[in-house]
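Internal tracking record. Fields below are filled automatically when a chain is submitted to the structure queue. Please do not edit lines marked as system-generated. If the sequence contains nonstandard residues, flag them in the REMARKS field before resubmitting.
Queue: standard
Priority: normal
Entity type: single polypeptide chain
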Amino acid sequence: MRPLQQAYILLEDGAWFPGTTRHPFAVQTGEVVFTTNLTGYQEVFTDPSYLGQLVVMTAPMIGNYGINAEDLEAKSGKPQISGVIVRELSGSEANWRASGSLDEWLARHGIPVLEGVDTRQLARHIRSQGAMRAIMVTGAEPDEEARQALESSPHMEGLDLATRATTSAEYSAGAGDPSPAAHIVAYDFGLKQSIVRLFTSAGCRVTVVPAKTPAARVRELAPDGLFLSNGPGDPAAVKYAIPVIRELAGSGLPTFGICLGHQLLALAFGASTTKLPYGHRGGNHPVKELPTGRVLITSQNHGFAVTATSKGVSGTKELEVTHLNLNDHTVEGIRHRELPVSGVQYHPEASPGPHDARHHLWEFSKLLTVNR
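SYSTEM-GENERATED OUTPUT FOLLOWS
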């Protein structure tokens, strides 16, 4: 076991929380957020939607089942978060699938871990004051240099992170199937690999394209449907994608978006988005499906949401609300009133769970098969 060093996290509003670290690390800035996931820390840390964020784990112990090569969400296999804050970091792992320790894996990739933090107090602070910029530093207490580094770090509002999270080149999956059910073009704004795996397991062929791919290239690929992926950052800053989505989805191409893709879809049809106080992150968010009255327990990870009024989606009459968050009544799902176009704010692939909403991906796959 490595000796512990003093370290801390300093928040934009001046609050700071002491802890320790096992590995020296360079100063790290980002937006501090918390997730209520009890399991699935590896999926959280490799989810590109967490790019640029310092993630507080509210579960009291992290790392007790290690890491493995099967549960990585980023195509690169690398952590996407900027830093991790925990109450207790397990010093050993006990799981037949484990190929190593979480501690060593994060250290190998240069991701700092701050442990021994009162994460309950920190999460409550974020809930009351909102997600904000923060900095992780080794040392006993904040100094002027740390405060200046924090002040010069970027705000999440107005930040386009999709260009950092996206693939650098087009690639395909499921092409080995001799008679795929449907061909999906998936825009990668920070795509989780479990989504690709679920589409291919349904018999679909998936072509993943970079975030800035023009509409003309998508038409060349002649897909049966268009998928808009999850991803990090401010949707309003992904301006290059909005007219492209409008052109493709507006032409009648069946389109389904999740998370950031859902927000971009709304923007493409005239809606607006807003930053939530502290976002929705975890695997226990209740969502009401308005057409059926059914309640889904969903996995979520986002800091922005589509704005709405009592009459529907704000700024457009083309879209209607299909799902609402039962905690704060924010928009969780939309669909076009005439076109085969829809989106949900949560994660249907829900890796590692819950799986209440996985049917959305199957329904989209079936829609494409019917329309062929």
